[in-house]
Amino acid sequence: MEVILLILLLMIGGILVTAAVHFVPVGGAPAAMAQTTGVGTGTTMLATGSGLTGLVSAGFMMESVGYDISNLPLVLASGAVGAMLMICITMLMGNIVYIFGVGVVPSSAKVKFDPITKLRQDLYVSKGTEGHGIPTVSFVSGTIGGLLGGIGGSLVYWTLLEINHNPAMSGIFAIGFFFLNAVIASYNIGGTIEGFHDPKFKRLPKAIVVSTVASLMCSIVAVFISTGGL
After folding, report:
1. The model scores a pTM over 0.90
2. In this structure, is residue 10 part of a structural domain?
3. Backbone angles phi, psi at 60, to 5 degrees
4. What range defines the domain where residue 85 resides?
5. Residue 33 domain-assigned?
6. Total tally of structural domains belonging to the chain
7. DSSP code per residue over 33-51
8. Which secondary-structure segment (H or E) carries 132?
9. Spatial CB neighbours of 132, under 8 Å, sequence gap ≥ 6
């Protein structure tokens, strides 16, 4: 496969990861105290967790069907499903804790009505907080984020494996791509985000530009090293 095409595929994978992070509802420390929506942990940790799950799923699929390019859709689908399951289970367990442990209603402070269920939100947001739990719109947004992240990570992993035929090296580089693009998204978000309905989501184009440049540089280095350039 042409080197330029391989670099392009790696760039696309990195950009998908950056975009995915903007969809995932991240609440950080405030969410851990039920004072804002999202999962109570950081952007990079969530992205990496779902990404690694997607990579494992993609790896199992590749071992089952082989490394032929005709099987790439199956590999990407497997990675996407793995990442989606991870983030969905995380959000579900978070909501169980918020609802039955803390005793709050999942509700968004960013919108008056949930864009999906059309249910009123502001009535259930406690005074002085930015919402609670993971409302429906955030859950759906997080699922989309898992889908994009799983596809992006699987694409990076498959492309690298196509170059060096070394699962360990490919996995290490793929994890690096996840961390790189997750950090780019984290700085762009600047704290917490509820999902695609959050005003901060409009910052996504800036992150894509930065991700494109960073992914290009890392792709060139990855291809250079993987092909024995060093």
Report:
1. yes
2. no
3. -65, -40
4. 43-226
5. no
6. 1
7. TTSBSSBSS-HHHHHHHHH
8. strand 131-132
9. 34, 35, 36, 37, 98, 102, 104, 105, 106, 107, 124, 125, 126
